[in-house]
Design a protein that fits this description.
alpha/beta; globular; about 240 residues; 7-stranded mixed sheet; about 45% helix; Spore Coat Polysaccharide Biosynthesis Protein SpsA, Chain A
Length: about 240
């Protein structure tokens, strides 16, 4: 099964090399970086690393970046698509295990969860308000969707081709709420979702949205869940 790792990148020059270097050398895959109008040297570093690069002509947003990632990966014949933030916040060494669960037919989607325990999450540098909001939003989404996922907001995910072909991700938000929209779509289609724990790594160079955008993201997530609930009740 052909695996393509997609990197939705925006100003990731300082962390990109570390991220790519930690992908196991013996893991058979292709790597595709989509640059969303970075103002730093992300594209230069990516090309020096020998990555295939797709460029946005301007900054279109996190969700728009992922749309391009998935569309381009599917065009290239991917059977399994792994989305990995190139900010080194997630440990790429976990990827073969995620892909293995899909290859062996256990799951259609595997999420890399940063929430194993409160102590571990906070010790890894996750800000307290982000931890609390992550837990609250994930609990609400689980109740609405009938799931038991420890985290809905991870930037490390693996999908089968069939999942991405089946959902209408192209019409989702171009902003951060895209991630939740995708999961609700996957649940509506009846695909199986599982998780694997990944270490928590927060540090200055890792991407992180500010408090104002976090609040907007949280409200968007609640609205996405309520829309899903409305569709389910109407069906």
């Amino acid at each position: 099964m052909k695996t393509i790792i997609v990197l939705p990148a925006y100003n990731a020059a300082e962390t990109l090399q570390k991220t790519v270097s930690d992908i196991p050398a013996d893991f058979e895959c292709s790597i595709l970086l989509v640059d969303d109008g970075s103002s730093d040297e992300t594209v230069t570093v990516a090309r020096e690393l020998g990555l295939e690069v797709v460029l946005h002509d301007k900054n279109r947003g996190y969700g728009a970046n992922q749309k391009t990632c998935y569309t381009e990966a599917l065009k290239r014949g991917a059977d399994i698509i792994v989305m990995l933030h190139p900010d080194y916040q997630y440990d790429p060494k976990i990827i073969p295990y995620m892909v293995g669960l899909i290859q062996d037919g256990y799951l259609d989607v595997v999420l890399g969860s940063r929430i194993r325990s409160r102590k571990e999450s906070l010790a890894g540098g996750m800000p307290l308000y982000k931890y609390v909001s992550n837990r609250a939003l994930s609990l609400f989404e689980n109740i609405v969707a009938g799931q038991n996922l420890s985290e809905w907001h991870t930037g490390m995910r693996a999908y089968t081709k069939e999942v991405l072909v089946s959902i209408d991700y192209a019409n989702n938000s171009d902003d951060f709420v895209f991630d939740s929209e995708v999961l609700f779509q996957i649940i509506e289609k009846g695909f199986t979702i599982g998780e694997i724990s990944v270490p928590v790594r927060y540090f200055p160079e890792a991407s992180s949205i500010n408090l104002k955008r976090s609040i907007r993201y949280g409200l968007g997530t609640v609205w996405t869940a309520l829309k899903y609930l409305g569709r389910r009740l109407a069906s």
